[in-house]
């Protein structure tokens, strides 16, 4: 198939013998161009009110965008009711490229295999290699799964090159600006933004599940006084299965939904209890009158001796951070949740595994590592030295909060949080020298060839720690904060997986160890 050039288009399709033939030929005229309801000219920017004004593809539109619009209008034989610029991927999908196949030839055996192309709503096309081993005898090798899609998912879309993140189709920027964490949680879990009634019911459900069994508090008090909150969180969440063993049927959608709500509701309660245990403070119970993020701050910082007023600026900032952390498609911890979930394990075990994966400094532990790094750098005049260390391949030091497996242009969450960081510090009347240090580090690194060539940009964790610090949250709690927000992503992905047919996750390996050899008795070994 060719893109329209000089108003001419030829579509070729393979016939039953596999030969490519001209299937359709189009000669485009200006009449085929779509018109917009109300008639505003798409590219004028002037909001022209002339009814039925022509939408001509503009020079700024890429060829496939023009193409998609042209085709869609002619296919219907009329002007479309609503014309939108669509992405290349959606265009490819509409153009039924899903029927495409890639043919793989094994030159040794002479065998060939057609690999079907799986196209999603958006994103690069993906090869279905599930028949590769049975037909040609090959596995694939992809360490770190950099080029492997492990599942199909309707939840989150990321375009790393364009810096796009969308939950259920909604851009993260719009959700950060207009929504609340609990509304986003509903969206991620159920696929749509809630109506007021749906939201009220959901809010009520979450609120009434926030309290934990008193024995959970006993369990927490058994930890060593300076236990890391993530150790407590993963242990206690895993233990929740022991409290709800009568509601662990993963094949029952109602029980799954209940477990999802319990996890989202109780995670802040457990995280706050872990902090209070470390501080040696008595338990604080969840207040139903407060909203999700307010309630968490109350459980963290209130003491029996005096009243605690939740600062609305702090609650809003926290809510924003939870939104930004809520989901991130098949990242390491979410893939862990899905892998454990694929065995049929209960949701508490899956989530505990996700927490453990999140803890690593290459993943959710990075926000804690960023603050430690900034403290280690100490002052602006040391920044250059540390940038050099980060570039030195013989030095294990890396700039924490820089780089991302998927985002190779910018992390849209970092853009939002960077702005919020300044606003929160201003609103709270705090001047943090670490922010100045972070800004200088960002400036120098972004000008440096090493970082530019490798497309290493500040990620969400680079700034989140500074906000958490401004809210009075101790460094050791940073990753636990991330876990609270991400719980909704984990359970949404687990719910999606559980509701669809799936196989147990079981990757293969390239064995590089010793070949077969005979056992040697111990007395004959030297
Ligand atoms: C996020 C991260 C794990 C992604 O890893 P990845 O996709 O496997 O990328 P790689 O480790 O292959 O890095 C690619 C190159 O950039 C370099 N690089 C990546 N992140 C770097 C960093 N933070 N500081 C210095 N160099 C870095 C690597 O050394 C490598 O260089 P090379 O090509 O010369 O060998 C990695 O960038 C990192 O460790 N960042 C710091 C931790 C962090 O902020 N994590 C939070 C993620 S939200």
UniProtKB/TrEMBL annotation:
InterPro entries the UniProt entry points to: Citrate_synth-like_lrg_a-sub, Citrate_synth-like_sm_a-sub, Citrate_synthase, Citrate_synthase_AS, Citrate_synthase_sf, Citrate_synthase_typ-I
Region Disordered, annotated ranges: 31-55
EC number of the protein: 2.3.3.16
GO MF assignments: citrate synthase activity
Recorded GO CC terms: cytoplasm
Enzyme superclass (EC): transferase
Annotated keywords: Acyltransferase, Transferase, Tricarboxylic acid cycle
Pathway: Carbohydrate metabolism; tricarboxylic acid cycle; isocitrate from oxaloacetate: step 1/2
GO term, biological process aspect, one: tricarboxylic acid cycle
Alphabetized SUPFAM superfamilies for the sequence: Citrate synthase (SSF48256)
Source superkingdom: Bacteria
Name of the molecule in the record: Citrate synthase
Species this chain originates from: Wenzhouxiangella sediminis
């Amino acid at each position: 198939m060719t893109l329209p050039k000089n108003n001419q288009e030829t579509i070729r399709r393979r016939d039953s013998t596999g030969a490519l033939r001209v299937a359709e030929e189009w000669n485009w005229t200006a009449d085929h161009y779509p018109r917009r309801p109300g008639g505003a000219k798409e590219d004028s920017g002037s909001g022209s009110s002339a009814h039925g004004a022509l939408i001509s593809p503009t020079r700024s539109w890429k060829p496939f965008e023009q193409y998609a619009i042209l085709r869609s209008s002619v296919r219907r034989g009329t002007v479309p009711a609503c014309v939108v610029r669509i992405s290349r991927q959606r265009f490819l999908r509409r153009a039924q490229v899903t029927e495409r196949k890639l043919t793989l030839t094994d030159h040794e055996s002479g065998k060939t295999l057609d690999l079907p192309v799986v196209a999603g709503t958006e994103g690069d096309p993906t090869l279905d290699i599930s028949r590769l081993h049975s037909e040609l005898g090959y596995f694939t090798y992809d360490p770190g799964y950099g080029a492997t899609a492990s599942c199909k998912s309707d939840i989150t879309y990321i375009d790393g090159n364009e810096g796009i993140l969308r939950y259920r189709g909604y851009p993260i920027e719009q959700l950060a600006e207009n929504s609340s964490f609990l509304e986003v949680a509903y969206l991620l879990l159920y696929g749509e933004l809630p109506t007021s009634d749906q939201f009220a019911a959901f809010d009520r459900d979450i609120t009434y599940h926030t309290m934990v069994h008193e024995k959970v508090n006993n369990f927490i008090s058994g930890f060593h006084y300076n236990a890391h909150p993530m150790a407590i969180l993963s242990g206690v969440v895993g233990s929740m299965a022991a409290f709800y063993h009568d509601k662990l049927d993963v094949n029952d959608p109602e029980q799954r939904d209940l477990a999802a709500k319990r996890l989202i509701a109780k995670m802040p309660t457990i995280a706050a209890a872990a902090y209070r245990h470390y501080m040696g403070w008595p338990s604080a119970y969840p207040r139903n009158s407060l909203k999700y993020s307010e309630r968490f701050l109350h459980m963290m910082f209130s003491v029996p001796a005096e009243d605690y007023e939740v600062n609305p600026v702090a609650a809003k900032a926290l809510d924003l951070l939870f939104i930004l952390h809520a989901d991130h498609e098949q990242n390491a911890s979410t893939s862990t949740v899905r892998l454990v979930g694929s065995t049929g394990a209960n949701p508490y075990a899956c989530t505990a595994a996700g927490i453990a994966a999140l803890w690593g400094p290459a993943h959710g532990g990075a926000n804690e590592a960023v603050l430690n790094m900034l403290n280690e750098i100490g002052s602006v005049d040391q920044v250059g030295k540390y940038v050099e260390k980060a570039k030195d391949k013989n030095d294990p030091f890396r700039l924490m909060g820089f780089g991302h497996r998927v985002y190779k242009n910018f992390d849209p969450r970092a853009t939002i949080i960077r702005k919020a960081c300044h606003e929160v510090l201003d609103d709270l009347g705090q001047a943090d020298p670490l922010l100045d240090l972070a800004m200088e580090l960002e400036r120098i690194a972004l000008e440096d060839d090493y970082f530019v060539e490798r497309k290493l940009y500040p990620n969400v964790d680079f700034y989140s720690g500074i906000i958490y610090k401004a809210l009075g949250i101790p460094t050791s709690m940073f990753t636990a904060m991330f876990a609270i927000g991400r719980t909704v992503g984990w359970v949404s992905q687990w719910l999606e997986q559980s509701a669809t047919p799936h196989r147990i996750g079981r990757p293969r390996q390239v064995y590089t160890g010793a070949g077969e050899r005979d056992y040697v008795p111990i007395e004959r070994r030297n």
